[in-house]
Amino acid sequence: MSLKPIAFFSTALALALPAYGEETRELDAHEHGHGALNIAIEGNRIAIELEVPGFDIVGFEYEAESDEDKAAVEAALATLGDPLNLFAVPAAAGCEVTEAVAELHGDEEHHDEHGEDHAEGEEHHDEHAEGEEHAHGEEHSEGEEHHDEHGDGESHSEFHAEYLMTCSDIGKATSIELSYFRAFENAEELEVQLVTEKGAALMEATPEAAILDLTQAM
To answer: What beta strand segments (E) does 122-210 contain?
Structure first.
């Protein structure tokens, strides 16, 4: 199952946050304990996007093979699938979840791309004389070094979740309490981007500062 795109969130983020681009941490750094939380409010809807390293959620990032690890992943996905227990909006706002999707992504795409490059190299090798085998070997070694630079032989995985809430009184959705940190003890920080029709704000959330003031951009 693929994540459902939340079009208005993407548009709002692109329009409201160009000035913040250089200040935000790129998730490509893949720092354990640190994730990204994007929140967009439009009309009576709240869209939330969460992207965090697998370590933050289940304590490991290798592919789950044992029954215990598989059970941990399934339990985590089930927990992520219930956003109101992770991102609590004031009850007076009357918010209900209309969409909730959570997935675990590994680094297979990178490995597949690397594999395709290697296959192309083999075809190139077949078309040349045997005297070029050594040169091809050097190219392959460089490719392996490039691969090691990206992953250092380690697997990386990330949990990605998207939610859409509809609220009966959006004006009372003035904060979000992040029970997320209590649910996932390895999580240390979330970098938060908040976008509304009136403005935008950047925040950092931690277990000690786990209540987001949504009025900063309202």
So the answer is: 158-167, 175-178, 189-196, 200-205
Strand order in the sheet with 87-88: 87-88, 175-178, 211-213
Residue indicated by tokens 């675990």: 104
Please answer whether residues 172 and 92 qualify as being in contact, where contact means their C-beta atoms are separated by less than 8 angstroms. Answer: yes
pLDDT in tens, 137-190: 444 444 444 434 334 446 789 999 999 999 999 999 999 999 999 999 999 999
Instruction: Choose among 170, 165, 168, 167: nearest CA to 97.
Output: 165
Which tens digit of pLDDT belongs to each residue from 101-144? 999 998 644 333 333 444 444 444 444 444 444 444 444 444 44
Q: What tokens were used for 194?
A: 């908040």
Residues facing residue 178 across a β-bridge: 87
- Residue 212 CA to residue 177 CA, distance in Å, equals 6
The most distant pair of C-alpha atoms in the chain lies apart, rounded to whole Å, by 76
